[in-house]
Amino acid sequence: MTRKLDLNLLLALDALMTERNVTRAAARLQTSQPALSAQLVRLRAMFDDPLLVAGSRGMTPTPRALEIAPRLSELIGEFRAIVQPDHFDPLTSEATIHIGSPDAMHNGLATSFATWAERAPNIRLAFIPLTRLNKPDIDQRMATGQLDLLLTVLSMMPERLHTRHVSTESFVCALRGDHPFNKRVMSMEDLCSLTHVIVSPMGGSFVGDIDAAMAEHGMARKVVASVPSFMLATNILYESDFAAVFPRTLALSLGSTLKLFELPVPIPTGKIAVGWHERTHRSPPHKWFREQLIDVFLQRKRADEPAKVVPGARIRPR
To answer: pTM for this structure?
Structure first.
């Protein structure tokens, strides 16, 4: 039997898969909750599958729904690209863009918020932390519209995304501004003598790249706290004699509140990239914002090129 195609039903399914909640999905579609519930009944009949099952934390998609979602989202994105006008005016166009990134990068972009708000007053930005998300989770959220843009290390980018390498991040040792340690150069022994807090975005780890590098020299540091965000680690540093290994960009953005030291042992740098899904590749507001975001990093790179830090020397915040 041939099943009649109803685009409104597919839009309803896309909204339900994105929100995982009938009330929020109805608001997204500007329809009533009973009307959307009726559409869900029709969708279940069309696909001969429950699609979404009510649970304690919203609606849980079935395996069939998870299979459908990425292709559906791409098709809807392509359809919207066809009917949307090519002309885009940031001063009048409206859009909401969901950006996934670690909290350290949120802080580094704070100075750009006001500029973006002036250039595009009707574009709303929702920054979503990537805490406890692995690559398959990120891939699924990008495909279903829960995330529109990624700003994170290149190794966390799902393979099918469009990506643009924008920066290379290095790391420093951070202490509070009035910490009693006040040598000009931090040695390996100095690093080991300090008590450390480590940032573990996935939760619970007490080792990082610095520990592997130190182990090659037969050295180990003492880590007494593992936290999920750099902001929490920063607050701990302010109130203690602890030390932490921070991304250089984040540490410098905190200014004179911290004193920073080059690490006595090199650790791998992190390649930072912007990533986006095919469904937003041609979307005018998403394309405009991607270009603004990438330009922030290009300008920062040009500004940082003349600044050289002598290896081993204390870093003075700008």
So the answer is: 0.69
